[in-house]
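Section: Multi-chain targets

For targets with more than one molecule, the full set of components is provided together so that the structure can be written out for the assembly as a whole rather than chain by chain. Components appear in the order listed by the source. The example entry contains two components.
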Amino acid sequence: MSADMTKNATAAGSGSGTPMVKAEGVHKSFGPVEVLKGIDLEVRPSEVFCLIGPSGSGKSTFLRCINHLEKVNAGRLYVDGELVGYRQRGDKLYELKDSEVALKRRDIGMVFQRFNLFPHMTALENVMEAPIQVKGVSKAKARERATQLLERVGLADKAGNYPSQLSGGQQQRVAIARALAMDPKLMLFDEPTSALDPELVGDVLDVMRDLAESGMTMIVVTHEMGFAREVGDSLVFMDEGVVVESGNPRDVLTNPQQERTQSFLSKVL
Amino acid sequence: MTVDIDKTAGPQDTPPGGPEAIKAIPVRHYGRYVSAVIAIAIFVSIIYAFAQGKINWGAVPDYFLDDRILKGVGQTMLLTVLSMVIGIAGGILLAVMRLSRNPVTSSIAWFYIWFFRGTPVLVQLVVWFNLGLVFEYINLGPIYKDYWSSFMTPLLTALLGLGLNEAAYMAEICRAGLLSVDEGQTEASHALGMSHSKTLRRIVIPQAMRVIVPPTGNEVINMLKTTSLVSVVQFAELFRYAQDIGQSSGAPVEMYFLAAAWYLVLTSVLSVGQYYIERYYARGSSRSLPNTPLQKIRANMLSLSNRSGGGANA
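Its structure, encoded as tokens over all components, is:
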């Protein structure tokens, strides 16, 4: 771990302050299948952190652990210095109540591979929903903010459309706007472009690039090596539940050290 | 022959120079003509048989708007609505209980559904009616205390009998609806920081409704007809009043036809209501909603009055 991390720390930006996400020996099993076998990594504020690897390597599972959609079986996971899903008093861990977990999730935006927009609401209503229901924002304010966000992702003219009336790329941009409406300090992207037609990938990546430039901390599970190389500050290659290699994306992608990384990249690049 | 050929040759809308439109003689489906004639013949002979029978049809319109019949219609509708309210509320509760992770609540819900679905409504009604043998008094502490027999009015018996039975069926319908909503919806909602109950209320139930409404419409129509059973617990509704009139006026069978006609009228009205509710919950599920019959008529009128009919689609 330590060797990887030191390489990582020199990669970019100011290394001081609490890391946005810190994983220490994170394990996760589904029944007898161990999906994560001890993940250690650190994501600093304002960093664009890319996770790559073959399917089944545990990237998505790890991402879902960060906002406690999955429970970690062993190890510790911290977001902004706070333990995810538990409270530690002395050497005992107490499970957090659902309402406390929900409170923490407010600050973590998540974008899914299959968009998961609410199909019975228009694009605008999708973006307005959480601020009104969770933060108690007034309808007028939520509408104003949602309109701004839709404009930001280039969909101001689609506000009144239902998700079924939007293309995949448009849906995913609405999903990004929906996550941003909660003013998160961290954004998780779970293969945001994998379900899209190649032609539509660019629009979504543009929005993400714009977001990265605005200083958002982003963890991106992706197969878009071009995006990782251009926008990413650090990159981790995962396989079979462990971190195989990590470092600056440009170094790892052009000059992988591990044999496993080399064989994976030779297939996808 | 010539008519058919004219039909295909009729629209000469192929642009000049375009591909030549196919002019073919359509296949003749003689079987269809034969089956249509047979079906009409059977239908007419049945109607004729009824018209010939020893039934005094004049009595039906005479009593159709009789005060007692109208009162019975009112009672039937009241009973239908109240029983369905109990059924739907109970059904949602039971469905949520069954889907909950708490093994006690989910098995209680399972047991309830097993019992109420497994016994006939008629039997349940009679049991409710005679529960005075088990409970002599009803005692809610300082709030209410009375003899069971005076507490259990016919209306209450009917409501409990029909409503609690319905809840068991509605529970299964609601459960199917809740399960039909993609898990990603719950995840997305949780990821936005929404609580379990908000997720259920704002995200899952509105989508489940699309699956829940059509079978529920069936249940309402079924309930309307099942209310005719409650005469056994001395509750007077449409069927009971029709029977009473039949006995006093000497036209018992005619009054059964009258009741049947009223049930048909009511179920037809309910079907129209169901159409509009389904349409409401279909929003967002398809790219554009089909026009309602009213909108279709309006669109036709517009195109008739020679205005370009595009605006009617909005």
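Chain B touches chain A at residues 182, 184-185, 187-196, 198, 202-203, 206-207, 281, 283-287 (CB under 8 Å).
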